[in-house]
Structure formats: structure tokens, C-alpha cells
Amino acid sequence: MSLAVESRGVTVRVPGKINLELVVGPLREDGYHELATVYHTVGVFDYVTVTAADTWSVQVSGATAAGVPTGSGNLALKAAKMLARRYGVEEAATLSIEKNIPVAGGMAGGSADAAAALVACESLWELQLTRDELEPIAARLGSDVPFLLHGGTAIGSGRGERLAPVLARGELHWVLWVSTESGLSTPDVYAECDRLREAAGTEAADPAPSGELIAALRTMQTAEVGAALRNDLQEAACSLYPVLREVLEAGTTLGAQGAIVSGSGPTVAFLVGTQAEAIDLSVGLAARGPAGDIRRATGPVAGAQVIQSVAPTGPHNFTG
Ligand code: ATP
């Protein structure tokens, strides 16, 4: 292999997501639930760098690297290999992931890395594909992956993979409570949701996003958005992870205008009006709330973006 090929590398930055609304409908025959969700990216980022190599490998570093698989179970590696197979690319790559998105935290970190790997490899291999053309592969990798190719704020339907844009102007300020203990398994939380519904004798209706949230997002009025936050998995997440009730209570008492478990949890997102309020709330939560990592982030932000592309460096660069 030439030096030129070995030195090619592309870095992609990708955010995590929260769900401003997650309406869980009936269980489908394929084992997924029918969903209506409003996705929203927030500024907590992973970085995925792909470099041409003779064999496939993945390395993981960063604040939340613990517990992320470095073998064939890594979703970013699966994404890169699936793209290579689909487009007949015969090169392999090394993937280096710098993780900051909580793992098994309900922020879709694995899906984010998969979206980033698709965008990075598409650029590395010069496939000239649009985001829309990457979507079918993204949807096969996971329900949240298509959204993280685009980012922003969007409605997801089906099992979350069918996207429609939401008109949302301006930004929202969030304080995130991130568990420093174990995360929650998404299938476990859905199963608990089904169990609780069965015990209560409730049947899920066909899910639809609420008009209140969509209207509130049009003007980005914090109080209206905060009042319209909804997550049908919240009760199940709290049932499996009871400290979440205390976290939600603490943030609300400290003045948050909205409080919600993100996706399948256990990350909790608090909505406030300004950067200054975000600082006050994070200081209060750190002092008086249940133990956890407290982070501040704004949203929405763009989905997977190439931030660095190191061009091939031929031997002439080494001759001085
Ligand atoms: P979601 O919100 O999409 O349901 P999550 O945010 O709760 O997911 P993830 O952080 O995506 O959870 O991780 C779920 C599991 O996926 C982890 O426990 C881990 O074993 C596996 N995994 C595979 N690849 C990755 C990756 N690149 N980053 C994080 N986890 C990964």
C-alpha cells in the first residue's frame, strides 16, 4: 500500500439527541413499537475519525469510552463495513472514536457514531452520496441513525426512521443530568413500558405528535416548549431507575421550565430560558440533586459534519 493511501483521514463531529416528545404506540409484528417522536440534537459531541488501513479496527477514547465495544459489535464499525459492501469499496479503515455522549443514556450515542462513520467513510472513499442517499443504510443500522445524519429538530415516525422537518427557529438551553452509574438498556425500558400498560389495562393508540409542541417550537417560547415535553417511556425508565424521580423533582424545584427523561433514559434533560439560568440550575443540581454528571448544552445543532479531511500526502511531501 502506498504512503498516500495510508495517510488519508476524515474526522466527523456528531451530536447526541434528546426526544422532546416520544409517543409510544402499539407493538408491531416485527417487534418494534410504532412511534411518533420529536427528535432534537443538543451540543454534546462524539468525534469519529476514519483512516484508510489494511484491516478493519476501532479504537475508543474519551470521557464516556468505558463499556463501548471495540470489536465487531461497535455500531460505527458495522456502519463503515455496510457502506463498503453496498458500494463495492475494497479498502478497510481504522475508526477512532472520541466519546463524550453518555453510553446507554438515551441519547443515541451508538447511532450517532454510526451516522458519523457513514459520513466519514463516504467522504474518505469519495462516493459522492447525498445524506438522503445514505438514509436507507442508516435506517438498517438503527431507528435513530437517519436523524443523526441530518440533526436539527425533526419528527420521526414508523419506528423513528421516517423523518419530517419541524419549523423551529432559535435555540433552546438545556441542562443534562447524566448517570454516573450504569445506563438503561433500551429493550428493557420498552418491555417495562409494555408491562406497566398491561398491568394498568391500557391499550396504546396510534401515535401522533402533539400540535402543542409543534406550535411551541415555531416560536421557541421556553415555557410553552417546556409544558409540551412528553415521553411515554418516562414512567418505565423511572420504574427501573427510581432515582430519576428525585432528579426530575430536584430540577423542577430549582426552576427548570421543562423536565424530561431523554428517550429510554436515564439521562434527564431540563429546559431553561437563558445561558445564565442554565449555569444557576447546573450549580444547584450539582449541590442538591442526586449524584450525577451535570452538563449544559444548547440545541438544535447540525447532525454529522466533516470537520477535518486530511488530503493524501504523496512521497514528494517527505523529500523537503
Ligand atoms: P438509544 O437512545 O439509541 O436507544 P442509548 O443512547 O441508550 O441508545 P447507546 O449509547 O447508543 O445507548 O448504546 C447502547 C449500546 O450499544 C451500548 O451499551 C453499547 O454496548 C453498544 N454500542 C455499540 N457501538 C457503540 C458506540 N459506538 N457507542 C456507544 N455504544 C455502542
Summarize the topology.
Elements: H1 3-6, E1 9-27, E2 33-53, E3 57-61, H2 75-87, E4 92-98, H3 109-124, H4 131-141, H5 145-150, E5 153-158, E6 162-165, E7 172-178, H6 186-200, H7 211-219, H8 222-228, E8 230-231, H9 234-240, H10 243-253, E9 258-261, E10 268-272, H11 275-288, E11 293-299, E12 305-310
Parallel strand pairs: 1-8, 3-4
Antiparallel strand pairs: 1-2, 1-12, 2-4, 2-5, 5-6, 7-10, 7-11, 9-10
Bound molecules: adenosine-5'-triphosphate.
Write out key terms for the chains shown:
single chain; 320 residues; alpha+beta; Ribosomal Protein S5, domain 2; Alpha-Beta Plaits; eight-stranded mixed β-sheet; four-stranded antiparallel β-sheet; 11 helices; 12 strands; 29% strand; disordered N terminus; disordered C terminus; binds adenosine-5'-triphosphate
Number of strands: 12
CATH class of the largest domain: Alpha Beta
Instruction: Please trace the helix and strand order, writing H or E for each element.
Output: HEEEHEHHHEEEHHHEHHEEHEE
Total of domains: 2
Tell me the radius of gyration.
Answer: 20 Å
What ligand molecules are bound, each kind once?
A: adenosine-5'-triphosphate
Stretches with pLDDT under 50, minimum 5 residues? 1-5, 314-320
From the spread of the alpha carbons, the general shape counts as globular
Q: Indicate the structural class.
A: alpha+beta
Q: What portion of the residues fall into strands of 2 or more residues?
A: 25-35%
How many strands, what sense, and barrel or not for the largest sheet? 8 strands, mixed
Task: Tell me roughly what share of residues is in helical segments.
Answer: 25-40%
Distance between the termini: 22 Å
User: Overall pLDDT, averaged?
Assistant: 92
